[in-house]
Structures are given as C-alpha cells and as structure tokens.
Here is the input.
Amino acid sequence: MGVIDEEILCAGWLHDIMDNTETSFDDLHAQFESEIAVLVSSISKDKSLPRKKREQAYVIQLKESSFNAKLIKLCDISASLSDLKNYEASKSKKLREVKQARYYINIIKNDLLSNHNYPKIQALLESANLIFIRYGQRCISLR
Here is the structure.
C-alpha cells in the first residue's frame, strides 16, 4: 500500500488484539502511543455489548472512524478474503464471511476512494470484487 507511517503500521499489526484477547484500550494506551490505541480501538468491536447491539455500534464506529483506521480495516478485509481459500470452513460459513466483508467495505469505501494518497486502494477493492463474484455476490461500486 505504500504506508510508511509507523503508527498506522503498528496499529495494523495490532488490529485484532482487542477482539481476540483480553487487551483493553488502557493496556494499549499504556504500552503504545495514544494514536495507536485509538486506531486499534476504532476497528475493534465492543465486547461488553450484546451481539446484536455490538454489530450496530460497530457499524457506526466504522463510519465515524478516521481514514487511517478505515485503511487498516480494508487491509484486514483484503487479507481475510485472500486467505478464504485456505480457511477450513463450510461454504455457508465462508459465504457469511464474504457477505460481512462486503458490508464493511461498503461502509468505508467512499472515504477510502476519496483519498488519492494511496492508489493501491483501488486495486484492493477490485480484488475484493473478484472474490465477491466468485461467491455469487454483487460487486461493490468503485465510483
């Protein structure tokens, strides 16, 4: 992607830590700079909420997140979609993953496409569209 900002790169490496461990915002803030903690938390779901409310809150959170957080989320989605062929799960589980990825991309894509500092964003979105087609889903509009 051409990202050289150390905070973005660090947050990218840590993007799933709050979702997959007991690490809190305060833990990240104490260990890393505040910007890194903010980026990671802005793309992490609030585990204290019930599942349905958690997803609703996460959608709002993604919409309101910074460009850098959306960039990290796009890279996360792209990596997950690319690795789907190695994912040992049922077709229906994979399809749910693809649908969720498509949904999240639709939330963040306009802000990503409006920033011309990272021309490879377009290529990641085009690659995602190829995977969506493979799973019988409509392409996302890249306009």
User: Anything to note?
Assistant: The chain is about 70% helix and 0% strand. The chain has one domain: 6-134. The chain has a mean pLDDT of 93.
